[in-house]
Amino acid sequence: MTLPIEPPGRGTARASSEPILELRNVDFCYPAARRSTAEVLGGSRLNKINMSIRRGKAHGLIGESGSGKSTIAKLLLGLAAPQAGQILFDGELLTPDRFAAFRLRVQPVFQAPLEALSPATPIGKQIIAPLLVNFKMKSSDCQARLAAAISAVGLSGDILGKLPHQISGGQAQRVNIARALILDPEVLICDEPVSALDMTVQAQILNLLLDLRESRGLSLLFISHDIRSVAYLCSEITVLKCGSIVESGSRDQVLLAPKTDYMKSLLEAVPNSELGIKTASPSTPRSWPAGCRILPADRH
Length: 300
Ligand SMILES: Nc1ncnc2c1ncn2[C@@H]1O[C@H](COP(=O)(O)OP(=O)(O)OP(=O)(O)O)[C@@H](O)[C@H]1O
Hints:
By secondary structure, this protein is of the alpha/beta class.
């Protein structure tokens, strides 16, 4: 079954290393911060942000609390507009006429999985809601896509009639990912998608994102405080401090040869063995739960 409206550009063969989402020289400042003094501004301002999420790749965004990570996610979701600079989607400037297609092809996954769900609506209805709203589809016409979406995230059909308070946090995050996938997006913007989950479930969701990236060619922005998760999932990493990028490059460049004292200090707390770096054979990181795989380099 196909969507009644095929997003423009879909199906076009593109090289997997091309940027799908780009920020070029982007400046952003929240309105309240614009009225404040420069000293108060801190991370409320994004300065000259240049960042590319490549097609089919996972890009990690790390940095201390308040450094501007979620603000970058908002810009990439079209929830805020930059005061200067450009956002490019699929190689073209994101203009108002391209916005509707963009919004379908770039979907969010947020931190608090249960809070992202409506408490009184059955799970199945919530997953198909984007089809009903965006494509005016009838519920009965969404069932094949619904079955595919829940299967893609490893859920079974018995969850569809349940309410959010009847499912676990890990199941709720799978539901949120299914709801994002139902529109068949090309990019997932994942803002701390595992930080509210316990370690075992974190590993399961990371593995799910890894599998989805591989099987669907999804591009991911993965925002996290946890460098190990970023090392596990992402081939490229951007490091943010007080609204500015202080490091950016391949996973190994940023983690093995950090240029700044800031990045070095972030890495001090995490031994290489837990970053999955230079690990000759697949094994499980020391403090990670069983089932969490070290990422072989070729899976990036
Ligand atoms: N709606 C808003 N209005 C004004 N300032 C805001 C708003 N949202 C965030 N900020 C400020 O912008 C800065 C960056 O916030 P942001 O949420 O992007 O940081 P973050 O790196 O994602 O932090 P965390 O890791 O704690 O989620 C912070 O100083 C924050 O207080």
